[in-house]
Protein 1
Amino acid sequence: MFTFDQLAGFIAVAEELHFGRAAERLNMTQPPLSRQIQKLEKSIGTELLERDNRKVQLTPAGNAFLDEAKRLVALANRAPVTARRIATGRSGVLRVGFTAASGFSILGPLLEEIAAILPQVDIDLQELVTGEQIQGLLTGELDMGLARPPFDREVFDSHLLYRESMVLAVPSGHRLTDLRRPVEDADLRDEPLIMHSPTKAAYFYDLVVRMHDIRHGNVVHTVSQILTMVSLVAARRGVAFVPHSATLLAIKGVDFLPLSGSDSEDPVELHAIWNRKVANPALRRLLQDLEFRTE
């Protein structure tokens, strides 16, 4: 097998087409350089150079091998730099999970921040519900999640990204839009309701049933995604409890009304979460530069 010293010697001779000048360029004498080329040719199994007392020139095989030799040497020179960049979190891949709702709110600005801090790190985005993100963080398939509570704080560190209120999405022109006050549970007694799935959207389901007196007989659709809920409202299939960030969807035919009876002013939370056993150097660097703190 050939060595990188042999490749460097061959490249120098191929570019200089003169053993003396190539040896001088490499800070060595001509005889050991000649032996390097001979060993390289023996290893490859073909002549790379034609030489006589007056000139040196590349064989067709030498011409073809020169490009590959340059690539190999460049790769060898680049590999330690790449390894150091990955080790310090300046290169590599950061795998981020996010909920659908965060995709039309915080995700864009957060990605801009990540790109500014880690410009040479590739971001692998995966749209997942919170339960799937937690599983991915446990198995190492994800580095960070944008997820809803609750989660095991002994296993995960977190940073609260934002809080927001719940609002009621209603079809444009709905009778509730004429109210001069926040919508109360009694106002929804006879309204068809588009509800969150108790399994696939457990966070919002639990939040809504805790905050409001839900008449389950009024539920006409059960879905898992906020975008689907708002689209069904636009189709005049019913009304829906959604986070305030759903207003950013700007879907025509939908109005958003304030709600009364909330347990808190901004009950909806979104956290950045990550495994306390951080393994990815890019994540360590991101957490350091963003100054995330444990909630």
Protein 2
Amino acid sequence: MVTDDRSPRVDAHAHVFTRDMPFAADAHSRPDYDYSVESWLADMDAHGITHGVIAAASLFDDANAYTLSALAAHRDRLRGTVIVPPETDAGMLFRLAAQGVVGVRLMWRRVDELPDLSIDPWRGFLHRIADAGLHVELLSRSASLPTLLPALVAAGVPVVVDHLGVPSRDAAERRVGTDALVRAVETGRCWVKLSAGFRMPFDTAAEVARDSLERAGPARLLWGSDAPFVNHESELGYGDAIDLYRRLVPDPAVRAAIDRTAFDLFFNQGC
């Protein structure tokens, strides 16, 4: 598969939903609009993007039905992650994998106390995720990464870290988080998404992207738009997200290599 250097070919992080979907009780935002899978595909088509990965959204907790229906309708182009409780059995995880699910999203960005991943139910859950051929999609902040990433890697489960590891605005804390990211990447079991850079100062996003490229390389990086940019809809469009990515990764050859990483990881095909 040939990659056009002018644009990314894989959007590895976007959310799709309709206004009819039930919000989680603790949803931090409640969008009053639809961003259907058809809307996302239209945005992708308009910018030459051929494949995508739906990221489960915390706003809807474990309401995965819409994601699964989107995967069923567009299996050639899409993969997705889901939110499920840690008691989920192996059979269910294997059935989800057969439907185009590639990962289970764990979100500890807004928690005060991190779970102990070395004991059940988490220990068994992580093993079942790995056995089903899925990865953990981790959303957590810089300060938590030195605790969470070694535990996840030790459990033997592949990890994809969202949003540049949600870097802290505090330089020392951000450095600790980036160092933990790089150490996890060096194990060969971890990838980092260059996504949601618009949710942080550009200099912060550029610093983490630069460090990740220099220390991890494009074989461990992914790009995602984070469409439809919840809470930033009036400031950003899909093309703007791509422009930001090009500012963070100006070399088209490096962007092409990041595309290859996404195809290999999510679609098991070279490009």
Protein 3
Amino acid sequence: MADSMWQGGGVDLDAYLERVGHRGDVAADLPTLRGLHAAHVDAIAFDNLDALLGREAVPLDLDSVQEKIVRQGRGGWCLEQVVLMAAVLDRIGFTFTAFAGRTRIRTGSRFGPALHVALCVELDGEHWLHDVSFGAYGPHEPVRLAEHARLDDDWSFDLVREQTGEYVLRFLRPEGPVELYGFTTDVRHPSDFEILNHFCLTHPRSPFNHQMVLQRTQPGVRHILAGSTLTEIRPARPATSRELDKDELLTAPADIFGIALAPGDVQALRTVLDGP
């Protein structure tokens, strides 16, 4: 296939499909988009461990992302997962662009930096919000990109549009709607990702470089680990939280989030948890 900025020609599609457990043929259609979305979020966790362990870089080139997430069985944070997903969609033949959103959940602000990146896929004259990398609060399948669009089943979401023109993705919970992020569809390119990646890795205001942040979405349960607090979300029930001790924190990546850590990474994580 011809080269593109999304590097579809360089993705190992068979290895990716095996990693996420997707069976059957793929094509540039809505059933494939839905199937890939669900399989990806079920199999691949949000994982900030490289930043927590003090790695000097979190590479965003496709080869590095595939080595880490596909071959090593790690998770990845938003930008890594978008690089991988975009390459997969490009390889299959989807038409899409990327955009950036301003996270609202946990920040209490609508005006923070636009650090979250997702994709807008065009199919048969409609546009779909395709976001596999927001972690345990994010959608499990694409959401039609239109005012008042709604996704209803065990996990429900909707889109509202504010007077500013910004869309807001909301997670509909028993305790009330949770605003996840606001966004416009202004186009972002892979070169923009590098700036966001540097902020997430190095900036003192980054939420990802000073505590463990792991998240995973599965059909009947969602888990979020922030620092030592593990939150569990189940359909139609209020979220529950508990504190993990050091031993539980060391085993949580594998046991709860399905992240395969090398022995050296486990030891490095133990050192971080032991503190100075």
